[in-house]
Write a structure and sequence with these properties.
The chain has 107 residues and is α/β, with parallel strands linked by helices. The protein is built from 3 helices and 5 strands; from the N terminus they run H-E-E-E-H-E-H-E. Helix 2 crosses helix 3.
């Protein structure tokens, strides 16, 4: 599962009326591609890089592939999108995501 801070933040946000939260992370091994936490919160796991777990210190080569795949799933969205990146890899992902979806809000 994603880090505890991200999970706690997403859970709290999902309890706000009219807010839907999706957390994106790398899919590892044969884990399911998504996990619904509650009615307004889902974790989407994206296939990128090797199938096995990749430690965060070695994830950088796969960030472009990851963000490109996430952007493809979100581009047709008519909803207002707000992105939050956590740690250096999340921040780098947001820099790449902004190239794909420039009109979203990034925090």
């Amino acid at each position: 599962r994603e880090c505890i801070y991200e999970h706690q933040l997403a859970t709290a946000l999902s309890k706000i009326p009219n807010i839907r939260v999706t957390t994106f992370c790398k899919q590892n091994l044969d884990h399911p591609s998504s996990e619904r936490i509650n009615l307004n919160y889902i974790v989407e796991k994206v296939k990128c890089g090797p199938n096995e777990f990749v430690p965060k210190e070695k994830i950088e080569p796969y960030i472009n592939e990851f963000t490109s795949k996430v952007a493809l799933t979100l581009k047709p969205s008519k909803e207002e999108l707000v992105f939050h990146g956590h740690y250096w890899d999340g921040a780098k992902s947001l820099l790449h995501m902004k190239e794909h979806i420039p009109n979203a809000t990034y925090i």
